[in-house]
Design goal:
Structural class: alpha/beta
Strand order of the largest sheet: 4-3-7
Distance between the termini: 42 Å
Number of strands: 10
Helix content: 25-40%
Largest sheet: 3 strands, antiparallel
Strand content: 15-25%
Order of helices and strands: HHEHEEEEEEHEHEEH
Radius of gyration: 19 Å
Length: about 220
């Protein structure tokens, strides 16, 4: 793992090629996410939504875009930590967010080093960064997520009997875990290691791998 690559300062242009190292890390992740095929659990979730009067809405801290690739529409997903498939200016010059589709990283995966030029801001020409929330990150532009969150709140307002399927949300960075606990409705917590529910919380905990638990849920409907 590249030290400090999850901090915005790692992307600044500086001696020693550290920017190439940081973008080597993120470029490699971007390549993996673009090539990844969503596993069967995503299809199960999509099919379960068909049985629901108001369908489903995804709240995720994943930055890999796999829900969209699995068939969930952009209007059905809220990415609370952003998306690696989008970029912003490292300096925040115009407050703009744009798709990363034109950036094709060439990475030496052995040395975690970007071989081609890092992405540039389309306005000022400075270094671009992923539009994801990093540690100690005061520069993340969150308006894309805020728009997604507004869509989520509009959807929640229409749902009278909410069922929440929470998958693999841990306690180290508990953004998704807290979201599920704070909503009204029945919480199904799927987690092979941290499946316990808060005392008095209405729901059920499944101490199982995600796919196995989803197959059980689908089989019971």
């Amino acid at each position: 793992r590249l030290p400090a690559s999850n901090q915005p300062a790692s992307l600044n242009e500086q001696p020693g090629g550290f920017t190439q190292l940081a973008w080597g890390f993120y470029g490699h992740r971007l390549e993996l996410y673009r090539e990844a095929i969503p596993h069967e659990g995503f299809a199960i979730l999509r099919d379960l939504a068909l049985f629901m009067d108001h369908g489903a809405f995804v709240f995720t801290s994943n930055v890999d875009g796999q829900f969209q690739k699995a068939g969930f529409g952009n209007g059905q997903v809220a990415e609370c930590h952003g998306s690696l498939h989008h970029l912003q200016c490292l300096d925040g010059c115009m407050g703009d967010i744009w798709p990363a589709r034109d950036f094709q990283p060439e990475v030496d995966n052995v040395h975690c080093h970007l071989l081609n030029d890092p992405p540039r801001c389309q306005w000022c020409g400075g270094i671009a960064r992923p539009n994801i929330l990093m540690f100690g990150d005061a520069g993340w532009l969150d308006y894309r997520f805020r728009e997604q969150e507004a869509n989520l709140q509009q959807w929640l307002a229409k749902v009278k009997r909410l069922a929440i399927i929470e998958i693999g949300a841990g306690t180290s960075i508990p953004s998704v875990r807290h979201f599920g606990e704070f909503q009204e409705g029945f919480l199904i917590r799927i987690n092979p290691r941290e499946a316990e529910l808060p005392k008095g919380r209405r729901g059920i905990s499944l101490e199982l791998p995600a796919l196995q638990a989803l197959e059980l849920i689908a089989g019971a409907i």
